[in-house]
Amino acid sequence: MTIADFAALAPHAQSGRIRLLATTGPKRLRAAPELRTAIEQGFPAYALFTWHAIMAPRGAPADVVATLRSALFKVVNAPGFSEELERMGFDPIDEDPAEFPAMLRREIELLRPLVEQAGIRGDTL
Amino acid sequence: MPPHSARLVQDRRPRTPRPGRVSLHFGAHQGHHQSRRSEDRPPEVEDALAQHPSIVEAAAFALPHPTLGEDVAAAVVLTGKRPATESELRDFVRARLAAFKVPTRIYAVPELPRGPLGKVRRGELARIARRYDPTEYVPPRDPEEAEIVRIFADVLGLERIGAEDNFFQLGGDSLRGTRVIARLEASFGVTVSADGVLCEAHGCIDCHEVRAARASRTSAWHNRLRPSRAASEPRALTDRSFGERGADEPAMVRRILVAAGCLWLGAAPAFGENYPTRPIRLIVGFPPGAQSDAAARLVGGKLSALLGQPVVIDNHGGASGAIASELAARAPADGYTLLLGSISNLTMAPLVIPNLRYDPVGDFVAIRRFARVPFVIGVNSKIPAATLGALVDYARQHPGELTCATGAPINQLAIQMLTNLSSTDIVHVRYKGTAAASPTSLRVTSA
């Protein structure tokens, strides 16, 4: 078995060498609406997804941050952006950037025991 | 007869061409095969070079040559009191000797390596030269790059340079970097911002940004700034002493102007209401083609259009994105360096990488999260399971047989979640990179 993002597995699924069983998102992928979530299949706690964000180094001037936030807000709310994400196997996230630090802290603490349990080690610096 | 010559005459050990290529710059002398025997000429060359006011002493030596057997190069020790460049020195020699006698390369070294008896160790010079020369000529990959390389060659006074050659090793310095920028601006009709001047204008990852920039007549150049010695220690204008440069110097023309760009950093205009006035670097901790890279390119292109400045993707893979994140955390907080943040480099990195040198929560300000990418679980089609429940049953009935290839810590964590939730035993196989992992499950016959 394998676990990866949809874009990585889709070609193998199309060629018939891999069968896709589930997605771990909170809802079905826009790119693969027929693929049921793990939650739907009776694994209510199996929700995990990667995400992407634009970050600036701390200390960036407020007006610069405001300019960037405004621009990125326009990008994600522009017509067609969701469809572009979908073609890549991504889903949109609608989140106030002010919530980000709390989300990140929460997520780190949520995953910490799993990381320890699995003995996951990253490549060293 | 000057002492150099005497030493050279004594030094008539048999020479054999060394393996390995050196960078060559074909000139008018190319056809003179018979005359390129180094033993015939070094005294003249050394004498000629020694007359130059910038030169303390000079030694000629042989460089292996792929077709001529060997070729003549020279090493010089400069006074350091006035500028001297390779092309200037070659012109100087050319004015005194026949063109075919002009050394193909002239290297500035801090001192000539000498043996216990004071004899110049020419073999050592050849070794130094090999270290500082590019090993392979990389031709330009498209007309745009060809033009860029031609400009560099012109400014350096060289007939030919490769696309991957090192500007400094070829005699470049910040003054010449300035000239290169002026020429690039004139040729391409772009404005190269003073502190963001790295050429990335070829068929590689940033090509589309570059061309978009050209189209909008803004900067086509991006500073792929790595913390290199060239960047952190701008050289004096007169100093082109290769011997002091590390062999680990970034060796790419496309990074040529890093040092020149850094010289201007202090003079960069303050940002403010006009932000952005120059290209923005978006650092990505994963290689081109990775999910983060795709996400960065998608949003980067759109931000470019809205902000009126190129958003140039700068991939720095390694250590689950931590290398890039550290780079971004240490970059000036001026909005011209951004980071593609993800669950890998911000959430997972502090959990899986000991001695992380940045604080994912404290070192960055979120501009926004913009994409969510759930995992997809797939099995080799030979496994009789059509649902996640059936897969779990299969795993329970075949303990230790179901293997899962993953390429990143976060994927491994996704497997751990599944095994916890289903009390199954899935053998995890870690691969380097998700792209490498996904085909693997195809090869595992049992799973």
Description:
With about 120 residues, chain A is of the alpha+beta class. In chain A, about 40% of the residues lie in helices and about 15% in strands. Chain A is built from 4 helices and 4 strands, in the order βαββααβα. The longest helix of chain A is centred in the last third of the chain and has 19 residues, at about 100-120. Chain A is globular. The mean pLDDT of chain A is about 90. With about 450 residues, chain B is α/β, with parallel strands linked by helices. In chain B, about 35% of the residues lie in helices and about 15% in strands. Chain B has 16 helices and 9 strands. In chain B, the strands form 3 sheets. Chain B has a 3-stranded mixed beta sheet with strand order 1-2-3, with helices on both faces. The longest helix of chain B is centred in the last third of the chain and has 17 residues, at about 290-305. Chain B is elongated and about 85 Å long. Chains A and B meet through β1, α1, β2, β3 and α2 of A and α10, α11, β6, α12 and β7 of B. β3 of chain A pairs antiparallel with β6 of chain B.
Quaternary organization: heterodimer
| Strand order within the widest beta sheet of chain B | 1-2-3
Distance between the amino and carboxyl termini of chain B:
80 Å
State the helicity of chain B in percent bands.
Answer: 25-40%
Count of helical stretches of chain A: 4
How are the secondary structure elements laid out?
The complex is a heterodimer of chains A (125) and B (447).
Chain A: E1 2-5, H1 6-14, E2 18-23, E3 49-57, H2 62-77, H3 81-87, E4 91-92, H4 100-118
Chain B: H1 3-10, H2 42-50, E1 55-65, E2 69-78, H3 86-94, E3 105-108, H4 122-132, H5 143-156, H6 174-188, H7 207-215, H8 229-232, H9 258-265, E4 280-284, H10 291-307, E5 311-315, H11 322-330, E6 337-342, H12 343-352, E7 364-380, H13 388-397, E8 403-406, H14 409-422, E9 427-430, H15 434-437, H16 440-443
Parallel strand pairs in B: 2-3, 4-5, 4-6, 8-9
Antiparallel strand pairs in B: 1-2
Helix pairs in contact in B: 1-2, 5-6, 6-9
